[in-house]
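Teaching assistant here, posting this on the class forum so everyone can see the example we discussed in section. The complex has two components, and the goal was to see what a joint structure prediction looks like when all of them are supplied at once.
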Amino acid sequence: MIKIFIKSIKNGFRFKMIGLIIYTVQLLLALTLGIQIYQVMDASIGNSAGLSNLLEQFNYTTFNDFLNVHGASISPIFGQLRYLLLVYAVFSIFLNAGSLGCIILNENSWSSFWSNAARYFFAFSKIALFFLIIFFFISALIWIPILSSFEAAMEYFYTEKPYVWILILAFPLYFLLLSFIFLWSVHSRISIIREDLNVIFGLKNGLFKTKKYFWKSLLVLFMFALVMFFGTFIYLWANKTVGMVSGWTILIFILLQQAIIYLRILWRFMIYKSIDNISEGNHEN
Amino acid sequence: MRLALNILFLTVGILFQIESFAQCDPYFKNPHSIRNANYEINLQLDHEKKKILATEQLIWINTSPDTLNEMRFYMYLNSFKNMESTFMKSANNIFGQDITKRTSDTWGWIDITKLIDSNGSSLEYRYIQPSDDNTEDQSILSVALKEELLPNDTLILNMNFEAKMPKTIARMGYAKDDFFMFVHWFPQACPYVTKADGTWAWNSHQAHRRTEFFADFGNYDVKITTDKKFILGASGCLVSQIENSDNTITSHYHGEDLIDFAWTAYPSYEVMEDQWKHVYIRLLIPGEHCTHGQRLIQAVKNSLEYFEKHVGEYPYTYLTMVDPPMKGLRSGFMEYPTFITGGSFYAWPSNIRSIESLMIHEFSHQYFMGMVASNEKEEAWLDEGFVTFYEDCIMEEYYGKDQSLFNICGYAANNSSFTRNEYTSLDNLSLDIINQPGWKSKGDTKPIVYAKTATMLQTLKRLAGEEAFDKMMKNYFNRWKFKHPKSQDFYAVANEYLTDLLESKYGMDLNSFLDQSLNTTRYCDFKVGQLRHIPIKSKHGWFGNQDKIKYQEGKKTGHFLSKVRIEQLGTFEIPVEIEFYLDNGNVIKEIWNGKGRSKDFVFEGPSKVKSVHIDPEQKIFIDVDLNNNSYFSNPIDLSIKKYSAKAIYWFQNALQTVGFLF
């Protein structure tokens, strides 16, 4: 398992140029909103001494006075984010089709990326729709009964303690189910690419492979999740101890943030490769 | 031998009993109040039927110059009799409860079954509706006296009453597993007091959703008989407990100079005890909340210390705190004399200190409501506003100036800023005035009565300075403790101690400040409207005579005209300090009287004004936007870059998450 994990990391880095395409798309989309945030802040409180309060640490008064007075200028940006996410959801099917195709077929060029993206887009769209429905179904199945039964739970249990524990335990169960549908989705897409199956057979084959390799795949997912948590922890720790408090630290943190985003893309490639390696028993690629 | 053993056991028993109940002393050497409403109540709780059967003796003194032929009682429990009461009609929702879904056994009521005067004559009574014409409301009872009650005469009434508790609603009632909170549970005398015009009258408002207390001071002697399984807590001090032969126990509580009496019973309370100087603190807390019991006790000990230092001494030797179980949470977050209720949740995080903050809020009511017993129904700002202000002060003193309320991964808030934001985030800053009866308010009273008042007091404290402010509050407390002050009484004390100071420091009119804050919907919002620099040139134009006339170009003198416009976007008139920083490092300080919409300041010299700071120490905390109080001509935009970068990073993360899902 460790072998697969290490090999997948190495393989993930091989596709750095493809990662760059996805990173650039995401950065451009994020910039459209980020620049607006900059402009609104600059135009509204750009000349205020209140801003210096926000440099060292978060300042509740400055932040809320800004929201109270200029909230109307900020809220449309978050409205745009909603639509942007929706559009990106469709676009990400295209990007994922390209990247997954290259990873599975071991084709590491921009032209292969675009051709794979175009080739698998419609099949992957159907798969995305199918899993989106399952995702909403599972979310509703877990959370609606728990969240709507608070009052009833207080009447049924002696204290709120069991309810809190049900709530806490619901998270691992939820993530377990999400992991299952994620693995199923990846296996299905890999089957379509590798075995040239149609969507129905791809899903069937994906389900079979997911069931067969579920615990192994879950373990690898868990290892990658640990890497991600570790990275996030380091970032938050650095933010807390050093912080974005001067020109230099702001620059360093911007670079760090962008490095994390780029690594997250490669991290996804690594996960795809590890799932493929487990099901194909191919540990050397 | 047997007799000797009996004597020994009896002696040990008495000593044990004395030891058990020696933590507090309910008796004051001298009365603190006029004690004109004194109660002796004996009651039995039938926990199966959620009912109490009780006898009550009221000894009431007519302190007015009027002769009375009626007596009035609060019967607020009847507000939960059905949906016809004024309380229920004025409630859109009560803690989010859908009242229509209640079952028939979840309603509550109170009923007098026997009422006689000291001569043994049975008295007639009827429900009246002094506040409205809702004849279905039974929250005020009028008793016709057989004999006229002369000024300074004492009325003794004996009654039997029965009360059924509702399922928890509006801070009272029962919940599953025999949890009980008894509030407004007995016929309580309405006060007969002076009105604003100086005449005397009954102050007997019906129960309303947005109003709480107003009652006379007196002594309470209450004997509560319950099943042995219950753990009790109550106003006053537990003086004895006697076990009865029928598996019940009678607990005897006594409290002096109180305006109300509340109690709770629940078999699963854990009891945590502590002592602060002369005060015995008893916390009743369900087992699942015990991990934060010490946090709650420490919060109250901090409050006791703060109030002693800044306001006055807590005279009682006892205080009962209740953290209700989750199923009875609707009975929490409330104040009663020497008995306060909070609210918490299992595994509450230590970096969110709302549970301490709420407990401090309720404790602060011991001073403003419990002792300085203003009329909460008519002038709620005198207790809720003051209490919110002191809650903020105490939290910031003991839990940190910048993060007293919460600190979640560096995103922190202190209490006074949080309170201020409750007011400043209102969509309509001119929604309501502070100083009006609760039933007249147009919306939620919290942002105005609680938050705006607290922010106004914070402003007053910052303007006057802590020492002067404390001196004023100490005098207000000492003058009005165990009495019923009105707004004018606070104005009078504030004027006595702060008028000259504020006038000499800022040319400020205290009465105008109080009047604008409390009786108008005006708001304050200073702004640096404009900062312009104009280079001053030497004389230019046509000079000379006849054919020697010449045009002379103006030359740069190196001097500038800096024009600064200070604006008031609201209509609140208050003097304000302004600092002008010149680029040679000099600072010019000015005071604008705050009258009018704007004021221009012009400076001429070799240095430009590089920045302007209105109210640089943020004394005028009631200003609704502090960000526009300063202006830098050459700002450093590092903060904007920082937050824009953060925003981009989080947008990218959101896109990543979406990408991962599809």
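For the discussion questions: Residues 86 and 132 of chain B are 8 Å apart (CA to CA). The longest strand of chain B covers residues 556-568. Think about how each of these relates to the inputs above.
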